[in-house]
Amino acid sequence: MYEIRIHGRGGQGAVMAGGMLASALVLEGKYVVAVPSFGFERRGAPVASYLRLDDREIRQMTNIYHPDCILCIDPTVARAVDVFDGVRDNAVLVQTTARPLEELKFPGRIATVGLCDGVAIALELFGRPITNTIMLGAFARTTGLVTLESLRTAIMESEFRDAGLEQNLAALERGFNATRVHRIECREAAA
Amino acid sequence: MSAVLKPKSKLIVCDGNEAAAWAVAAARVEMVAVYPITPQSSLVEYLAKFVADGRLAAELVDAEGEHSVLSVLQGACLAGARTYTASCGPGVAFMFEPYVRTPGLRLPIVMGIVTRDLLTPQSVWGGQQDAMSVREAGWIQVYCESVQEVLDTTIMAYKIAEHRDVMLPVNVCHDGNYLSFGAARVELPDQAEVDAFLGEKDVNWHVALDPRRPMAVDPLTGGAVGSGPATFVRYRKGECSAMQNALSVITEVHEEWGRRFGRTHAPLVERYRMQDADYALVTIGSMTGAAKDAVDAARERGEKVGLLKVKTYRPFPVQAVAAALAQVKAAGVVDRSVSFGWNCGPLFQDVIGALYHAPRRVAAMSFIGGLAGADITTGHFDEAIRRVAELAQGAAAGGTVWLNEKD
After folding, report:
1. Domain covering A2-183 in this structure, CATH number
2. In chain A, which residues have their Cβ closer than 8 Å to the Cβ of B182?
Protein backbone atom coordinates (compact mmCIF):
# COMPACT_ATOMS: atom_id res chain seq x y z
CA MET A 1 0.00 0.00 0.00
CA TYR A 2 1.20 3.48 -0.90
CA GLU A 3 -0.07 6.51 1.03
CA ILE A 4 -0.23 10.06 -0.27
CA ARG A 5 -1.14 13.19 1.68
CA ILE A 6 -2.18 16.23 -0.33
CA HIS A 7 -1.79 19.65 1.30
CA GLY A 8 -3.29 22.84 -0.03
CA ARG A 9 -5.60 25.69 0.79
CA GLY A 10 -9.36 25.93 0.42
CA GLY A 11 -10.23 26.82 -3.17
CA GLN A 12 -7.18 25.30 -4.86
CA GLY A 13 -8.83 21.95 -5.39
CA ALA A 14 -6.80 19.68 -3.10
CA VAL A 15 -9.80 17.44 -2.46
CA MET A 16 -10.73 17.39 -6.14
CA ALA A 17 -7.10 16.55 -7.00
CA GLY A 18 -7.41 13.53 -4.71
CA GLY A 19 -10.53 12.43 -6.54
CA MET A 20 -9.03 12.89 -10.00
CA LEU A 21 -5.83 11.09 -9.03
CA ALA A 22 -7.92 8.26 -7.56
CA SER A 23 -9.90 7.97 -10.82
CA ALA A 24 -6.71 7.91 -12.88
CA LEU A 25 -5.23 5.16 -10.72
CA VAL A 26 -8.39 3.06 -11.03
CA LEU A 27 -8.13 3.40 -14.82
CA GLU A 28 -4.73 1.72 -14.41
CA GLY A 29 -6.25 -1.17 -12.46
CA LYS A 30 -5.35 0.04 -8.97
CA TYR A 31 -7.52 0.05 -5.89
CA VAL A 32 -7.84 3.40 -4.16
CA VAL A 33 -9.36 5.08 -1.14
CA ALA A 34 -9.48 8.88 -1.03
CA VAL A 35 -10.56 10.54 2.20
CA PRO A 36 -10.68 14.33 2.52
CA SER A 37 -9.95 16.03 5.83
CA PHE A 38 -12.97 17.94 6.98
CA GLY A 39 -13.93 21.01 8.89
CA PHE A 40 -15.56 24.23 7.88
CA GLU A 41 -13.52 24.56 4.69
CA ARG A 42 -13.21 28.07 3.38
CA ARG A 43 -11.09 29.75 0.76
CA GLY A 44 -7.49 30.10 1.90
CA ALA A 45 -7.64 27.86 4.97
CA PRO A 46 -5.22 24.90 5.09
CA VAL A 47 -6.85 21.67 3.87
CA ALA A 48 -5.56 18.15 3.37
CA SER A 49 -6.77 15.08 1.59
CA TYR A 50 -5.58 11.52 1.84
CA LEU A 51 -5.14 8.89 -0.85
CA ARG A 52 -4.20 5.22 -0.54
CA LEU A 53 -3.43 3.01 -3.48
CA ASP A 54 -2.73 -0.68 -3.75
CA ASP A 55 -2.97 -3.63 -6.13
CA ARG A 56 -5.61 -5.18 -3.90
CA GLU A 57 -8.72 -3.96 -2.14
CA ILE A 58 -8.07 -1.35 0.56
CA ARG A 59 -10.11 -1.65 3.73
CA GLN A 60 -8.98 1.27 5.87
CA MET A 61 -11.30 4.28 5.61
CA THR A 62 -9.17 6.49 7.82
CA ASN A 63 -6.93 9.52 7.57
CA ILE A 64 -3.22 9.07 6.73
CA TYR A 65 -0.62 9.67 9.43
CA HIS A 66 2.53 8.19 7.84
CA PRO A 67 2.56 9.18 4.16
CA ASP A 68 4.96 7.81 1.57
CA CYS A 69 4.41 10.92 -0.48
CA ILE A 70 3.50 14.54 0.24
CA LEU A 71 1.91 16.45 -2.59
CA CYS A 72 1.86 20.10 -1.58
CA ILE A 73 -0.07 22.26 -4.03
CA ASP A 74 0.38 25.55 -2.17
CA PRO A 75 3.70 27.37 -1.69
CA THR A 76 3.02 28.71 1.81
CA VAL A 77 0.75 26.22 3.56
CA ALA A 78 3.81 24.63 5.21
CA ARG A 79 4.05 27.79 7.35
CA ALA A 80 0.61 27.05 8.80
CA VAL A 81 0.78 23.25 9.23
CA ASP A 82 3.58 20.71 9.54
CA VAL A 83 3.24 19.09 6.14
CA PHE A 84 6.02 16.61 7.02
CA ASP A 85 4.33 15.30 10.17
CA GLY A 86 4.74 11.51 10.38
CA VAL A 87 6.33 11.17 6.93
CA ARG A 88 7.99 7.83 6.23
CA ASP A 89 11.64 7.18 5.40
CA ASN A 90 12.59 7.51 1.71
CA ALA A 91 9.49 9.57 1.10
CA VAL A 92 8.66 11.75 -1.89
CA LEU A 93 7.88 15.46 -1.76
CA VAL A 94 6.11 17.12 -4.68
CA GLN A 95 6.05 20.86 -4.02
CA THR A 96 4.82 23.91 -5.84
CA THR A 97 7.39 26.63 -5.40
CA ALA A 98 9.30 29.29 -7.32
CA ARG A 99 12.40 28.66 -5.22
CA PRO A 100 15.32 26.35 -6.00
CA LEU A 101 15.95 23.15 -4.08
CA GLU A 102 18.77 24.71 -2.03
CA GLU A 103 16.39 27.22 -0.43
CA LEU A 104 13.83 24.63 0.70
CA LYS A 105 13.72 23.04 4.14
CA PHE A 106 12.58 19.45 4.44
CA PRO A 107 13.50 16.56 6.71
CA GLY A 108 16.12 13.91 5.91
CA ARG A 109 13.43 11.31 5.47
CA ILE A 110 12.61 12.88 2.08
CA ALA A 111 14.54 11.06 -0.63
CA THR A 112 12.99 12.52 -3.77
CA VAL A 113 11.81 16.05 -4.42
CA GLY A 114 9.81 17.21 -7.43
CA LEU A 115 9.58 20.97 -7.83
CA CYS A 116 7.23 22.92 -10.05
CA ASP A 117 6.29 26.59 -10.03
CA GLY A 118 2.61 25.77 -10.14
CA VAL A 119 1.46 29.22 -9.05
CA ALA A 120 3.21 30.95 -11.96
CA ILE A 121 1.67 28.49 -14.43
CA ALA A 122 -1.76 28.83 -12.83
CA LEU A 123 -1.66 32.64 -12.94
CA GLU A 124 -0.75 32.41 -16.61
CA LEU A 125 -3.43 29.85 -17.49
CA PHE A 126 -6.29 30.68 -15.14
CA GLY A 127 -5.44 34.13 -13.80
CA ARG A 128 -5.79 32.61 -10.32
CA PRO A 129 -3.48 30.42 -8.21
CA ILE A 130 -5.48 27.21 -8.67
CA THR A 131 -2.76 24.61 -8.86
CA ASN A 132 -4.40 21.21 -8.52
CA THR A 133 -4.21 19.86 -12.07
CA ILE A 134 -0.77 21.41 -12.60
CA MET A 135 0.50 19.59 -9.52
CA LEU A 136 -1.06 16.32 -10.63
CA GLY A 137 1.24 16.63 -13.64
CA ALA A 138 4.12 17.30 -11.25
CA PHE A 139 3.13 14.25 -9.22
CA ALA A 140 3.09 12.02 -12.31
CA ARG A 141 6.51 13.32 -13.39
CA THR A 142 8.05 12.90 -9.93
CA THR A 143 6.67 9.51 -8.90
CA GLY A 144 5.89 7.72 -12.16
CA LEU A 145 2.96 6.13 -10.29
CA VAL A 146 0.39 7.27 -12.82
CA THR A 147 0.49 8.10 -16.51
CA LEU A 148 -0.43 11.44 -18.04
CA GLU A 149 -2.87 9.59 -20.26
CA SER A 150 -4.87 8.27 -17.29
CA LEU A 151 -4.83 11.67 -15.60
CA ARG A 152 -6.06 13.24 -18.84
CA THR A 153 -8.99 10.81 -18.95
CA ALA A 154 -9.77 11.39 -15.26
CA ILE A 155 -9.79 15.16 -15.79
CA MET A 156 -12.05 14.80 -18.81
CA GLU A 157 -14.51 12.84 -16.66
CA SER A 158 -14.45 15.44 -13.88
CA GLU A 159 -16.70 18.43 -13.78
CA PHE A 160 -15.19 21.86 -13.53
CA ARG A 161 -17.51 24.47 -12.21
CA ASP A 162 -15.49 27.56 -12.99
CA ALA A 163 -12.61 26.57 -15.22
CA GLY A 164 -12.50 25.03 -18.64
CA LEU A 165 -11.57 21.47 -19.40
CA GLU A 166 -9.08 22.50 -22.09
CA GLN A 167 -7.29 24.81 -19.65
CA ASN A 168 -6.98 22.03 -17.10
CA LEU A 169 -5.66 19.56 -19.66
CA ALA A 170 -3.09 22.18 -20.63
CA ALA A 171 -2.32 22.72 -16.94
CA LEU A 172 -1.65 19.02 -16.44
CA GLU A 173 0.74 18.97 -19.37
CA ARG A 174 2.51 22.17 -18.27
CA GLY A 175 2.90 20.85 -14.73
CA PHE A 176 4.41 17.61 -15.99
CA ASN A 177 6.87 19.33 -18.31
CA ALA A 178 7.91 22.06 -15.87
CA THR A 179 8.75 19.71 -12.99
CA ARG A 180 12.37 19.13 -12.00
CA VAL A 181 13.02 15.96 -10.04
CA HIS A 182 15.87 15.81 -7.53
CA ARG A 183 17.19 12.64 -5.87
CA ILE A 184 18.44 13.56 -2.42
CA GLU A 185 21.67 11.82 -1.41
CA CYS A 186 22.04 10.57 2.14
CA ARG A 187 20.96 13.51 4.30
CA GLU A 188 20.43 11.60 7.55
CA ALA A 189 22.67 13.99 9.48
CA ALA A 190 20.75 17.00 8.27
CA ALA A 191 17.41 15.63 9.43
CA MET B 1 -39.77 5.81 -16.17
CA SER B 2 -36.38 5.91 -17.84
CA ALA B 3 -33.39 5.81 -15.55
CA VAL B 4 -30.46 5.71 -17.92
CA LEU B 5 -27.64 3.85 -16.32
CA LYS B 6 -25.00 2.45 -18.62
CA PRO B 7 -26.23 -0.89 -19.91
CA LYS B 8 -23.34 -2.87 -18.40
CA SER B 9 -21.68 -2.63 -15.03
CA LYS B 10 -18.95 -0.05 -14.86
CA LEU B 11 -16.13 0.91 -12.52
CA ILE B 12 -16.29 4.41 -11.07
CA VAL B 13 -14.62 6.26 -8.22
CA CYS B 14 -17.15 7.85 -5.91
CA ASP B 15 -17.81 8.56 -2.26
CA GLY B 16 -20.53 7.04 -0.07
CA ASN B 17 -22.98 9.87 -0.66
CA GLU B 18 -22.70 9.55 -4.44
CA ALA B 19 -22.91 5.76 -4.13
CA ALA B 20 -26.23 6.09 -2.30
CA ALA B 21 -27.53 8.37 -5.06
CA TRP B 22 -26.48 5.86 -7.74
CA ALA B 23 -28.38 3.20 -5.82
CA VAL B 24 -31.51 5.37 -5.68
CA ALA B 25 -31.32 5.80 -9.46
CA ALA B 26 -30.75 2.09 -9.99
CA ALA B 27 -33.76 1.24 -7.78
CA ARG B 28 -35.93 3.51 -9.96
CA VAL B 29 -37.18 5.49 -6.96
CA GLU B 30 -40.14 7.67 -7.92
CA MET B 31 -40.37 10.13 -5.05
CA VAL B 32 -37.49 11.76 -3.23
CA ALA B 33 -37.97 14.33 -0.47
CA VAL B 34 -34.97 16.00 1.08
CA TYR B 35 -33.63 18.66 3.35
CA PRO B 36 -29.86 19.14 3.05
CA ILE B 37 -27.75 18.85 6.19
CA THR B 38 -24.04 18.17 6.76
CA PRO B 39 -22.67 15.55 6.07
CA GLN B 40 -25.61 14.37 3.97
CA SER B 41 -25.81 17.49 1.75
CA SER B 42 -23.81 16.22 -1.21
CA LEU B 43 -26.05 13.14 -1.36
CA VAL B 44 -28.98 15.51 -1.92
CA GLU B 45 -26.97 17.40 -4.53
CA TYR B 46 -26.23 14.17 -6.42
CA LEU B 47 -29.91 13.21 -6.31
CA ALA B 48 -30.93 16.64 -7.63
CA LYS B 49 -28.33 16.37 -10.38
CA PHE B 50 -29.47 12.88 -11.34
CA VAL B 51 -33.07 14.12 -11.57
CA ALA B 52 -31.98 17.14 -13.64
CA ASP B 53 -29.90 14.92 -15.94
CA GLY B 54 -32.79 12.49 -16.43
CA ARG B 55 -30.81 9.69 -14.83
CA LEU B 56 -33.38 9.45 -12.02
CA ALA B 57 -37.01 9.74 -13.12
CA ALA B 58 -38.25 10.87 -9.72
CA GLU B 59 -40.11 13.84 -8.38
CA LEU B 60 -37.82 15.63 -5.94
CA VAL B 61 -39.35 17.71 -3.17
CA ASP B 62 -37.02 20.11 -1.41
CA ALA B 63 -39.18 20.39 1.71
CA GLU B 64 -38.98 23.08 4.39
CA GLY B 65 -37.71 20.68 7.04
CA GLU B 66 -37.22 17.02 7.85
CA HIS B 67 -40.63 16.68 9.51
CA SER B 68 -42.18 17.56 6.18
CA VAL B 69 -39.66 15.42 4.27
CA LEU B 70 -40.86 12.22 5.87
CA SER B 71 -44.50 13.31 5.84
CA VAL B 72 -44.23 13.86 2.07
CA LEU B 73 -42.79 10.37 1.67
CA GLN B 74 -45.54 8.83 3.79
CA GLY B 75 -48.14 10.34 1.47
CA ALA B 76 -46.23 9.25 -1.62
CA CYS B 77 -45.74 5.74 -0.30
CA LEU B 78 -49.44 5.45 0.64
CA ALA B 79 -50.19 6.54 -2.93
CA GLY B 80 -47.98 3.74 -4.25
CA ALA B 81 -44.59 5.30 -4.97
CA ARG B 82 -41.15 3.90 -4.24
CA THR B 83 -39.56 6.51 -1.97
CA TYR B 84 -36.21 7.69 -0.60
CA THR B 85 -34.72 10.26 1.69
CA ALA B 86 -31.55 10.69 3.70
CA SER B 87 -30.79 12.73 6.76
CA CYS B 88 -28.63 12.82 9.86
CA GLY B 89 -28.10 14.29 13.31
CA PRO B 90 -30.42 17.20 14.09
CA GLY B 91 -32.39 16.39 10.92
CA VAL B 92 -33.33 12.99 12.29
CA ALA B 93 -34.28 14.67 15.58
CA PHE B 94 -36.59 17.10 13.78
CA MET B 95 -38.08 14.18 11.82
CA PHE B 96 -38.90 12.16 14.91
CA GLU B 97 -42.73 12.39 14.89
CA PRO B 98 -43.30 11.05 11.35
CA TYR B 99 -40.26 8.78 11.86
CA VAL B 100 -41.94 6.81 14.67
CA ARG B 101 -45.21 6.59 12.71
CA THR B 102 -43.63 5.05 9.62
CA PRO B 103 -43.04 1.49 10.91
CA GLY B 104 -46.56 1.31 12.39
CA LEU B 105 -47.99 2.28 9.01
CA ARG B 106 -45.81 -0.53 7.63
CA LEU B 107 -44.47 1.73 4.89
CA PRO B 108 -41.40 0.36 3.06
CA ILE B 109 -39.57 3.69 2.89
CA VAL B 110 -35.79 3.61 2.56
CA MET B 111 -33.88 6.35 4.35
CA GLY B 112 -30.14 6.79 4.48
CA ILE B 113 -28.67 8.03 7.74
CA VAL B 114 -25.32 9.64 6.98
CA THR B 115 -24.43 9.28 10.61
CA ARG B 116 -23.48 12.38 12.55
CA ASP B 117 -22.88 12.94 16.21
CA LEU B 118 -25.66 14.63 18.13
CA LEU B 119 -25.60 18.02 19.78
CA THR B 120 -24.41 19.32 22.14
CA PRO B 121 -21.45 20.30 22.06
CA GLN B 122 -22.08 21.78 18.62
CA SER B 123 -20.62 19.43 16.04
CA VAL B 124 -21.11 18.72 12.35
CA TRP B 125 -18.99 15.58 12.16
CA GLY B 126 -19.56 11.86 11.99
CA GLY B 127 -20.57 9.59 14.85
CA GLN B 128 -23.45 7.13 15.11
CA GLN B 129 -25.30 8.84 17.96
CA ASP B 130 -28.15 9.96 15.66
CA ALA B 131 -28.94 6.50 14.30
CA MET B 132 -28.45 4.90 17.71
CA SER B 133 -30.86 7.38 19.29
CA VAL B 134 -33.67 6.04 17.09
CA ARG B 135 -32.71 2.36 17.37
CA GLU B 136 -35.96 1.46 19.13
CA ALA B 137 -38.39 3.19 16.81
CA GLY B 138 -39.23 0.11 14.75
CA TRP B 139 -37.08 0.79 11.69
CA ILE B 140 -34.72 -1.81 10.33
CA GLN B 141 -31.17 -0.47 10.63
CA VAL B 142 -28.19 -1.72 8.66
CA TYR B 143 -24.68 -0.22 8.91
CA CYS B 144 -22.25 -0.18 5.96
CA GLU B 145 -18.51 -0.74 6.00
CA SER B 146 -17.47 0.44 2.52
CA VAL B 147 -18.61 2.68 -0.32
CA GLN B 148 -19.52 -0.37 -2.40
CA GLU B 149 -21.58 -1.70 0.48
CA VAL B 150 -23.50 1.60 0.65
CA LEU B 151 -24.46 1.27 -3.00
CA ASP B 152 -25.34 -2.42 -2.89
CA THR B 153 -27.19 -2.21 0.44
CA THR B 154 -29.30 0.79 -0.55
CA ILE B 155 -30.61 -1.20 -3.52
CA MET B 156 -31.11 -4.33 -1.40
CA ALA B 157 -32.97 -2.24 1.19
CA TYR B 158 -35.97 -1.91 -1.18
CA LYS B 159 -36.23 -5.64 -1.61
CA ILE B 160 -36.07 -6.13 2.17
CA ALA B 161 -38.50 -3.30 3.00
CA GLU B 162 -41.09 -4.31 0.40
CA HIS B 163 -40.99 -8.03 1.21
CA ARG B 164 -44.49 -9.05 2.30
CA ASP B 165 -43.14 -10.77 5.41
CA VAL B 166 -41.47 -7.52 6.44
CA MET B 167 -43.16 -4.30 5.19
CA LEU B 168 -41.03 -2.04 7.35
CA PRO B 169 -38.92 1.02 6.66
CA VAL B 170 -35.15 0.60 6.43
CA ASN B 171 -32.33 2.91 7.50
CA VAL B 172 -29.15 2.31 5.52
CA CYS B 173 -26.53 3.93 7.76
CA HIS B 174 -23.15 5.08 6.50
CA ASP B 175 -20.64 6.97 8.58
CA GLY B 176 -20.52 10.72 8.13
CA ASN B 177 -17.14 11.98 6.84
CA TYR B 178 -15.26 8.70 6.46
CA LEU B 179 -17.88 7.08 4.20
CA SER B 180 -19.92 10.10 3.14
CA PHE B 181 -16.83 11.80 1.67
CA GLY B 182 -14.40 8.89 1.50
CA ALA B 183 -14.12 7.77 -2.13
CA ALA B 184 -13.22 4.36 -3.45
CA ARG B 185 -13.34 2.23 -6.55
CA VAL B 186 -16.93 1.10 -6.94
CA GLU B 187 -18.68 -1.14 -9.40
CA LEU B 188 -22.02 0.07 -10.70
CA PRO B 189 -24.39 -2.83 -11.22
CA ASP B 190 -26.04 -3.52 -14.54
CA GLN B 191 -29.46 -1.81 -14.68
CA ALA B 192 -31.29 -4.74 -16.25
CA GLU B 193 -29.90 -6.98 -13.53
CA VAL B 194 -31.05 -4.56 -10.81
CA ASP B 195 -34.51 -4.45 -12.38
CA ALA B 196 -34.68 -8.24 -12.38
CA PHE B 197 -33.40 -8.36 -8.81
CA LEU B 198 -35.91 -5.87 -7.40
CA GLY B 199 -38.89 -6.93 -9.47
CA GLU B 200 -42.13 -4.98 -9.36
CA LYS B 201 -42.47 -2.51 -6.53
CA ASP B 202 -44.93 -3.54 -3.84
CA VAL B 203 -45.55 -0.69 -1.43
CA ASN B 204 -49.22 -0.01 -0.66
CA TRP B 205 -51.22 -3.21 -1.08
CA HIS B 206 -52.09 -3.10 2.62
CA VAL B 207 -52.72 0.58 3.25
CA ALA B 208 -53.38 3.16 0.57
CA LEU B 209 -54.49 6.62 -0.37
CA ASP B 210 -56.38 5.37 -3.38
CA PRO B 211 -59.87 6.49 -4.47
CA ARG B 212 -60.48 3.04 -5.96
CA ARG B 213 -59.74 1.41 -2.62
CA PRO B 214 -61.18 3.78 -0.01
CA MET B 215 -59.98 2.95 3.49
CA ALA B 216 -59.33 4.61 6.82
CA VAL B 217 -55.60 4.99 7.32
CA ASP B 218 -54.42 4.77 10.92
CA PRO B 219 -57.76 5.05 12.75
CA LEU B 220 -57.78 5.54 16.55
CA THR B 221 -56.82 2.21 18.09
CA GLY B 222 -56.28 1.00 21.66
CA GLY B 223 -57.62 2.11 25.01
CA ALA B 224 -58.87 -0.15 27.75
CA VAL B 225 -62.32 -1.06 26.53
CA GLY B 226 -63.92 -3.17 23.81
CA SER B 227 -61.61 -4.56 21.19
CA GLY B 228 -59.10 -1.74 21.78
CA PRO B 229 -56.43 -3.54 23.82
CA ALA B 230 -56.38 -6.70 21.69
CA THR B 231 -56.36 -4.73 18.43
CA PHE B 232 -53.44 -2.58 19.55
CA VAL B 233 -51.52 -5.66 20.69
CA ARG B 234 -52.10 -7.22 17.27
CA TYR B 235 -50.51 -4.20 15.58
CA ARG B 236 -47.52 -4.12 17.92
CA LYS B 237 -46.98 -7.87 17.82
CA GLY B 238 -47.23 -7.68 14.05
CA GLU B 239 -44.44 -5.13 13.92
CA CYS B 240 -42.27 -7.19 16.25
CA SER B 241 -42.89 -10.36 14.22
CA ALA B 242 -42.09 -8.52 10.99
CA MET B 243 -38.79 -7.40 12.55
CA GLN B 244 -37.94 -11.00 13.35
CA ASN B 245 -38.99 -12.08 9.82
CA ALA B 246 -36.55 -9.49 8.53
CA LEU B 247 -33.62 -11.54 9.84
CA SER B 248 -34.24 -14.30 7.32
CA VAL B 249 -35.36 -11.93 4.57
CA ILE B 250 -32.19 -9.85 4.93
CA THR B 251 -30.17 -13.06 4.70
CA GLU B 252 -32.03 -14.29 1.60
CA VAL B 253 -31.77 -10.93 -0.14
CA HIS B 254 -28.02 -10.72 0.51
CA GLU B 255 -27.57 -14.27 -0.81
CA GLU B 256 -29.48 -13.44 -3.97
CA TRP B 257 -27.41 -10.29 -4.40
CA GLY B 258 -24.24 -12.36 -4.21
CA ARG B 259 -25.53 -14.83 -6.79
CA ARG B 260 -26.62 -12.15 -9.25
CA PHE B 261 -23.85 -9.61 -8.92
CA GLY B 262 -20.90 -11.72 -7.78
CA ARG B 263 -20.25 -9.51 -4.75
CA THR B 264 -21.14 -10.93 -1.38
CA HIS B 265 -21.82 -8.95 1.77
CA ALA B 266 -22.47 -10.65 5.10
CA PRO B 267 -26.15 -10.02 5.85
CA LEU B 268 -26.39 -10.02 9.66
CA VAL B 269 -22.88 -10.39 11.02
CA GLU B 270 -19.55 -11.06 9.35
CA ARG B 271 -17.14 -13.42 11.05
CA TYR B 272 -13.56 -12.43 10.21
CA ARG B 273 -10.75 -14.82 11.25
CA MET B 274 -13.00 -16.20 13.98
CA GLN B 275 -12.30 -19.87 13.18
CA ASP B 276 -9.74 -20.49 15.94
CA ALA B 277 -9.95 -17.14 17.74
CA ASP B 278 -9.44 -16.95 21.52
CA TYR B 279 -10.90 -13.47 21.68
CA ALA B 280 -12.59 -11.01 19.36
CA LEU B 281 -13.35 -7.43 18.48
CA VAL B 282 -16.92 -6.51 17.61
CA THR B 283 -17.29 -3.58 15.21
CA ILE B 284 -19.96 -1.66 13.32
CA GLY B 285 -19.71 0.58 10.25
CA SER B 286 -16.68 2.02 8.47
CA MET B 287 -14.31 1.44 11.41
CA THR B 288 -14.32 -2.25 10.45
CA GLY B 289 -11.75 -1.92 7.64
CA ALA B 290 -9.03 -0.56 9.92
CA ALA B 291 -10.01 -3.13 12.57
CA LYS B 292 -9.53 -5.98 10.07
CA ASP B 293 -6.08 -4.65 9.18
CA ALA B 294 -5.21 -4.50 12.90
CA VAL B 295 -6.48 -8.07 13.37
CA ASP B 296 -4.30 -9.24 10.44
CA ALA B 297 -1.24 -7.55 11.98
CA ALA B 298 -1.98 -9.12 15.38
CA ARG B 299 -2.40 -12.55 13.75
CA GLU B 300 1.05 -12.13 12.21
CA ARG B 301 2.37 -11.58 15.74
CA GLY B 302 0.71 -14.85 16.76
CA GLU B 303 -2.30 -13.34 18.54
CA LYS B 304 -5.41 -15.49 18.16
CA VAL B 305 -7.81 -12.64 17.60
CA GLY B 306 -10.88 -12.51 15.37
CA LEU B 307 -13.49 -9.94 14.47
CA LEU B 308 -17.24 -9.88 14.31
CA LYS B 309 -18.82 -7.10 12.25
CA VAL B 310 -22.44 -6.28 12.99
CA LYS B 311 -24.17 -5.17 9.79
CA THR B 312 -27.80 -5.64 10.77
CA TYR B 313 -28.33 -3.79 14.03
CA ARG B 314 -32.14 -3.69 14.11
CA PRO B 315 -33.48 -6.34 14.33
CA PHE B 316 -30.50 -7.37 16.45
CA PRO B 317 -29.18 -10.74 15.26
CA VAL B 318 -29.14 -12.21 18.76
CA GLN B 319 -28.54 -15.84 17.78
CA ALA B 320 -25.85 -15.03 15.21
CA VAL B 321 -23.95 -12.85 17.68
CA ALA B 322 -24.27 -15.36 20.51
CA ALA B 323 -23.18 -18.25 18.29
CA ALA B 324 -20.17 -16.37 16.93
CA LEU B 325 -18.96 -15.18 20.32
CA ALA B 326 -19.77 -18.35 22.30
CA GLN B 327 -16.45 -19.85 21.18
CA VAL B 328 -14.20 -17.01 22.42
CA LYS B 329 -13.04 -16.22 25.94
CA ALA B 330 -13.45 -12.45 25.65
CA ALA B 331 -14.93 -9.81 23.38
CA GLY B 332 -14.20 -6.11 23.01
CA VAL B 333 -17.09 -4.17 21.51
CA VAL B 334 -16.20 -0.91 19.74
CA ASP B 335 -18.98 1.65 19.49
CA ARG B 336 -19.07 5.01 17.67
CA SER B 337 -21.72 6.36 20.05
CA VAL B 338 -22.65 6.19 23.71
CA SER B 339 -25.42 4.80 25.86
CA PHE B 340 -25.94 7.53 28.42
CA GLY B 341 -27.98 5.26 30.66
CA TRP B 342 -25.42 2.46 30.86
CA ASN B 343 -22.11 4.37 30.59
CA CYS B 344 -20.98 2.18 27.68
CA GLY B 345 -21.64 1.80 23.98
CA PRO B 346 -25.13 0.79 22.79
CA LEU B 347 -23.76 -2.05 20.64
CA PHE B 348 -21.92 -3.32 23.73
CA GLN B 349 -25.24 -3.42 25.59
CA ASP B 350 -26.80 -5.42 22.75
CA VAL B 351 -23.86 -7.82 22.59
CA ILE B 352 -23.89 -8.60 26.30
CA GLY B 353 -27.66 -9.06 26.04
CA ALA B 354 -27.15 -11.57 23.23
CA LEU B 355 -24.43 -13.33 25.22
CA TYR B 356 -27.06 -14.26 27.81
CA HIS B 357 -27.98 -16.91 25.22
CA ALA B 358 -24.42 -18.27 25.04
CA PRO B 359 -23.84 -21.60 26.81
CA ARG B 360 -21.13 -20.08 28.99
CA ARG B 361 -20.08 -16.66 30.18
CA VAL B 362 -17.95 -14.61 27.79
CA ALA B 363 -16.04 -11.69 29.30
CA ALA B 364 -16.72 -8.43 27.52
CA MET B 365 -15.63 -4.83 27.60
CA SER B 366 -16.81 -1.63 25.95
CA PHE B 367 -14.69 0.68 23.79
CA ILE B 368 -15.99 3.99 22.49
CA GLY B 369 -14.22 5.83 19.68
CA GLY B 370 -14.71 7.98 16.62
CA LEU B 371 -17.12 10.45 18.19
CA ALA B 372 -17.74 13.76 16.37
CA GLY B 373 -15.43 12.99 13.44
CA ALA B 374 -12.56 11.49 15.44
CA ASP B 375 -10.62 8.80 13.59
CA ILE B 376 -10.36 5.19 14.77
CA THR B 377 -7.03 4.01 13.40
CA THR B 378 -5.25 0.68 13.36
CA GLY B 379 -3.29 2.09 16.33
CA HIS B 380 -6.49 2.42 18.36
CA PHE B 381 -7.44 -1.14 17.41
CA ASP B 382 -3.95 -2.39 18.40
CA GLU B 383 -4.65 -0.97 21.86
CA ALA B 384 -8.14 -2.51 21.95
CA ILE B 385 -6.73 -5.91 20.91
CA ARG B 386 -4.13 -5.69 23.70
CA ARG B 387 -6.82 -4.92 26.31
CA VAL B 388 -9.11 -7.72 25.13
CA ALA B 389 -6.18 -10.20 25.14
CA GLU B 390 -5.64 -9.32 28.82
CA LEU B 391 -9.34 -9.80 29.46
CA ALA B 392 -9.19 -13.23 27.83
CA GLN B 393 -6.32 -14.11 30.17
CA GLY B 394 -8.46 -13.30 33.19
CA ALA B 395 -7.85 -9.59 33.81
CA ALA B 396 -10.77 -7.59 35.21
CA ALA B 397 -12.86 -5.87 32.55
CA GLY B 398 -12.83 -2.45 34.19
CA GLY B 399 -14.91 0.40 32.81
CA THR B 400 -15.54 1.71 29.32
CA VAL B 401 -12.38 2.60 27.39
CA TRP B 402 -12.57 5.90 25.45
CA LEU B 403 -10.21 5.34 22.52
CA ASN B 404 -9.71 8.99 21.54
CA GLU B 405 -9.41 10.28 25.10
CA LYS B 406 -5.72 11.10 24.71
CA ASP B 407 -5.58 11.93 20.99
Report:
1. 3.40.920.10
2. 33-36, 61
